[in-house]
């Protein structure tokens, strides 16, 4: 089972009410390479991966839910108390018409989240290579959002999340090495 | 191990490209591309700094700044 | 937790907990691929103890952080009291 902790992984701050940035940021909430996709991808693959790397998939998948909550917090803070007029100006008029200020699992262009964003081939190497690629794509997405954001507090949180993609990618690469390893050989070179 | 975390290249600039050309483009090549299987005993950041930077491991830290921002 | 804005101390303590728990996240992922690194394991256990102690301090002053019985509750039931993480 899972246990919820009433605490963010990292202290999230944003500088201003800025629904325009929220519109971009939602990409990492319900987009193809976003945190929801990441969490569900790893936690689903873990059932059919060799025992040696199940722990890693479980832990990274769980951490992704903490990142999803950080993104939600950023979006919430950027749009909280924004007027319908402000939301309309930020390009969120269509979102407001359907959802008010509620979050929804869609990407920056409004496309709803779909299970086709994630793969599960059942082949451990294919799945781990997918995971490495997913981490690099999420890292790139954070970079593109940072490039468009002028909010120093928000960028601080986004840089933290980008760095987590780097670490996750490193661990998935190590997982591949563990599965490649011949019995009795050491893996440091 | 020594490597640069950003690589650059100069794309071909055609005579009919309407946007003012960016003559040098760049992309990230962060540390996980080079580290290999992490050896034991690597240097750590102190806890507070680790949280701020997003990693405990100095060798995995990859700073990022908007490359389009005039510096 | 009280309805009025929480004191600076609460934010400071939470950041201390986030700091310790982040070291634990990093060590967890590292140990997942390095299960035989004894030094990392000892560090993990040290930080695990620190995390438990600090969490108890925070919960005694500001209410439960974990649910399903992993935190004690004062009377009345304090779990749903604000602020939730995104409201902080």
Layout of helices and strands:
The complex is a heterotrimer of chains A (189), B (71) and C (88).
Chain A: H1 19-25, H2 27-30, H3 35-45, H4 54-79, H5 84-89, H6 93-99, H7 124-148, H8 152-180
Helix pairs in contact in A: 1-4, 3-4, 3-7, 4-8, 7-8
Chain B: E1 6-9, E2 25-28, H1 47-53
Antiparallel strand pairs in B: 1-2
Chain C: H1 8-33, H2 38-62
Helix pairs in contact in C: 1-2
Explain the overall architecture.
The complex is a heterotrimer of chains A (189), B (71) and C (88). With 189 residues, chain A is mostly helical. Chain A has helices spanning 19-25, 27-30, 35-45, 54-79, 84-89, 93-99, 124-148, 152-180. In chain A, helix 1 packs antiparallel against helix 4 (54-79), helix 3 (35-45) packs antiparallel against helix 4 and helix 3 packs antiparallel against helix 7. Chain A is elongated and about 65 Å long. The model of chain A has no long low-confidence stretch (mean pLDDT 96). Chain B has a domain at 41-65. Chain B is 10% helix and 11% strand. In chain B, strands 1-2 form a two-stranded antiparallel sheet. Chain A binds chain C through residues 1, 3-12, 53, 55-56, 59-60, 63, 69, 72-73, 76-77, 167-168, 171, 174-175, 178, and chain C through 11, 14-15, 17-18, 21-22, 25-26, 28-30, 32-33, 64-68, 70, 84-86, 88.
In brief:
The complex is a heterotrimer of chains A (189), B (71) and C (88). Chain A has 189 residues and is mostly helical. Chain A is built from 8 helices and no strands.
List keywords for this structure.
heterotrimer, A: 189 residues, mainly alpha, Ferritin, 8 helices, 61% helix, elongated, C: 88 residues, 2 helices, 0% strand
Number of helices of chain C: 2
Structural class of chain A: mainly alpha
Under CATH, the topology of chain A is which?
Ferritin
What's the order of the H and E elements of chain C?
A: HH
What is the rounded Rg of chain C? 15 Å
Greatest interface by residues involved: A-C, 28 and 24 residues
Helix/strand structural class of chain C: mainly alpha
CA-CA gap between termini of chain C: 12 Å
Look at the structure and give the CATH class of chain A.
Answer: Mainly Alpha
